[in-house]
Q: What sequence folds into this?
DNA sequence: CACTTTATTGATCGACGTTCATTTCGAACT
DNA sequence: AGTTCGAAATGAACGTCGATCAATAAAGTG
């Protein structure tokens, strides 16, 4: 067969991407199959490789999409947030990971070969979530501490991430640790307070 | 062929385990191959399955071994530690992950199917590292705070873990964050101080 | 109409995890 | 010593995977 012209190249790429993301959400990284993705939208495996070139590139695109959905969810949560926006952030972070286990985990399961690098475009799309958090941290810190805000924000992301990993993989449950999200929030508050933060929501 | 009697079943299991661990350290989780492990020690793939039953069980054993080596290294570091044992802990944690990227990452890359559970023995072996950290946190907290020490210790492990992940996967470097280990240590100190800790090494 | 260009295919390859009928050989027993 | 027995070890076989690429079919072009 030849040009089918049902879809432009862009549309086709989007089809693969959306269906790939759905497949990832359903079966997870370990059971993900490029063949299955192609089959699902009625194209052959060859076409998928023509569009993405590499399995890695498809996985990168899928994970970037997860980042974008994640950022949207966090943004939406912040818009309907009460005064304690830091709690809102942590809850939205955890909430997305818990509600989208497979997609969220796939972000960290996929390790790029040393010779493959994320394109600037992918990095920019993924950076949106981080920027949201940096902005909130900046908003909460006193002016004297704002120079270190980006660095602190990234550190707090790591703090929450670590708690999130142990929550999802069952380590906390195994050790009898309850309410891991509250635990993460305690750490975040301590660090923000130590940096001089003062917010309505902070006790 | 039949009983070769070169090795007892225990020795054979240990051979597979050690060689599997070595293979994992060399190629990482994504490129790990059970066939390759068997070939390396001169046994067939069938024998490996006779011994471990499942690829998951082999991976569990390999990762448990990583936990044990990790704990040993941390223990050794603590024995030759100066007064700042908390810093020593964080440095040893990071140090092992950095020096054993593939083995360390494999711990978190391997997701058990929902129907498979870690045996009590495996959990006990893996828990050694956590216990070391809990002990050090207990030693540093005032008596009034010791009830919460185990919970806080697990939380601090998550804090360091999160920083370690972002260090190894390049996220910190990408964002221009330098000295991620020091960053993690700052967070740990803040939380310990907030809990009333007082140590020689603490500034 | 013929010709070029482009999109799409799926057979093909090597490698993987997994299974299991078959084989091999030490050991126990005449 | 031969015979039997059973545990240990094998590797061919199966289905699936990522990846490749010559072949093919349709659209555009003149």
A:
């Amino acid at each position: 067969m030849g040009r089918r012209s049902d879809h432009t190249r862009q549309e086709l790429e989007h089809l693969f991407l959306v269906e790939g993301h759905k497949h990832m959400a359903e079966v997870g990284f370990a059971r993900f199959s490029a063949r299955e993705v192609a089959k699902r939208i009625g194209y052959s495996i060859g076409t998928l490789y023509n569009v993405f070139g590499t399995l890695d590139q498809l996985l990168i695109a899928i994970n970037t999409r997860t980042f974008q959905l994640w950022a949207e969810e966090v943004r939406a949560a912040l818009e309907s947030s009460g005064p304690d926006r830091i709690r809102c952030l942590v809850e939205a972070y955890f909430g997305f990971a818990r509600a989208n286990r497979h997609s969220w985990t796939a972000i960290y399961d996929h390790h790029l070969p040393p010779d493959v690098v994320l394109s600037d475009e992918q990095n920019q799309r993924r950076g949106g979530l981080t920027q949201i958090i940096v902005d909130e941290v900046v908003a909460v810190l006193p002016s004297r501490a704002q120079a270190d805000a980006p660095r602190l924000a990234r550190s707090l992301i790591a703090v929450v991430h670590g708690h999130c990993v142990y929550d999802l993989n069952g380590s906390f449950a195994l050790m009898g640790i309850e309410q891991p999200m509250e635990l993460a929030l305690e750490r975040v508050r301590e660090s923000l307070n130590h940096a001089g933060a003062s917010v309505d929501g902070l006790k």
Summary: Residues 1-5, 33-35, 45-46, 49, 54-55 of chain B lie near DNA strand C (CB under 10 Å from a C1').
